[in-house]
Design a protein that fits this description.
Blueprint lengths: L2 H27 L5 H13 L3 H5 L9 H12 L1 E13 L4 E12 L3 E14 L2 E4 L15 E7 L6 E2 L13 H7 L1 E4 L2 H7 L8 E4 L1 H5 L1 H5 L3 E7 L5 E8 L7 E2 L4 H11 L6 E6 L6 E6 L6 H4 L9 H10 L7 E4 L2 E4 L2 E4 L7 E4 H6 L3 H11 L1 H11 L23 H8 L9 H13 L1 E2 L15 E2 L2 H16 L13 E9 L6 E10 L2 E7 L5 H15 L2
Parallel strand pairs: 6-11
Antiparallel strand pairs: 1-2, 2-3, 3-4, 5-9, 7-8, 9-10, 12-13, 12-22, 14-17, 15-16, 18-19, 20-21, 21-22
Helix pairs in contact: 9-18, 11-13, 11-14, 11-17, 13-15, 16-17
Length: 543
Amino acid sequence: MPRGRIIVIASTATVLAVGAAAGGAYYVLHTRGSATETASHFTAAWARGDLAAMKADLASPAPGFDTAYAEPAARLGAQKTAVRLGEVTPAGDDRAKAAYTATLSLRDIGEWTYTGSIDLVVKDHHWKVAWTPAAVHPAMTGSTHLALKTSWPQRAALEDARGGRIDTGDAGGSVQQLVGYLDKATAKDVAKLGSPYKPGDAIGRGGLQETFQERLAGVPTTEITVVDGSKKALKTLKTIEGSPGEAVRTSLDPGVQKAAVEAVRDLPKPASLVAVRPSTGEILAVVNNRGGFNRALDGRYPPGSTFKTVTAAGLLAEGLTPGQKVSCPEKANVGGLPIRNSDHESFGSLTFLDSYAHSCNTTFAPLAAQHLGGGKLYEIASMMGFNQPLTIGVPAAKGSMPKPTSEADLAAESFGQGRITASPLVMATVAASVADGTWRPPTLVPSLTQKAQPRQLPAAVTEQLRTMMAAVVTKGTAKGAGLPKGTAGKTGTAEFGTGPKLDSHAWFIGFRGDVAFAVVVEAGGMGGKVAAPAAAAFLHGLG
């Protein structure tokens, strides 16, 4: 074979070899994207919780991926994750490491910031994430987990208006109804209260303890730890200092509360008494002489003739005067509803003041139909505490006065029957509105923000109503109750039930100085004979 031909063949082989080498270099040099681009895409998807986008960046399927990224929320209560990408540096052939800083917003705890890194590798001409659990946090290995350890501060106190503790169990049964008690948190409680809480932690149950749980409990000192599979702590990653609980001061006056307790304690039937300060709306005393249901705040009773205070306010606003002559017959009929007075009394012609003092149903029902109508009665009732939201710190039933749908309905409601219901608390605020001239939303915790707004009554109305309420005590249905001088009030005998002979709740509402109150005795009978003497005992007990 000629020498020149051999040279040509050799040269061709050399060219092919060089071409192959050049092709390999092209393959390596033309990896698509960069490690920084992949790391940026991955961390951005992490921050927005887009696991699908994160998985698209993985070099290979990663068992435990979803579970690992769920840990911060499930175990730490993380509500938001912010990730800032740091420097991306080479880590060998076709490998890189991306530093990051993560900040987790932990529910009810605060923020936790830590640093970590993500491994990257070239696969199939693309930069991909070579994922391990350590990408979530450097301490996570798949067999270790993140956890919280909490240490609660001493629970703060519930206090009366003078700063004395009322949560020690020594303050009496009625106060305990307001306070509530401590219990162990359940899984349901933990889901509601948040990540610092664990099943078995002490929490408030019922009353003020529950309403002000977070305020009283404070914020625990929290350690973010790494634990093994048996939940044994291996390392503390971060300690977040807590803060002490804050005491909750109520408006309860221990002297007023004691007087209220003594006034109803020995009554043979269930009885409740609520006292409020007219000038502020602060609740001074809440007493039930029977345990269990809190009748004083949650009772829904027909208010009976105590509601005539509201009707009288409406009639005075329409121009009637205390001295105006009216009629109090034995019987009346309004809209087809037969009406009578207690014990079938009649007083003939008398003043409007005296009809109120003697509690004449047969006066008030026709006057309400003639001068008010359902709309005006509803309006004045709402000004004096009915149909208003109550934000006192514990559950309390609002007074309900539905708009009358007929004359008969209006007649029944004019003297506190029909569909009207109220608790002693609500009726105490009615009396307080007359005493002060302004209805103020009642509260057991003065620092609470109220939903309802104060409602000012016309000055002429309140002045005349005070005179009329004083007459109830000096010459009306409460004359023989032993009430101290300077007391103004209104009795009520509210029928309830069905049948030819109905039982009656005994009511008395009133005020003296800057104390307004309401007393109800379930099925007690006549307000002037049962509830008014209890109110007298209360006022005398105040000294």
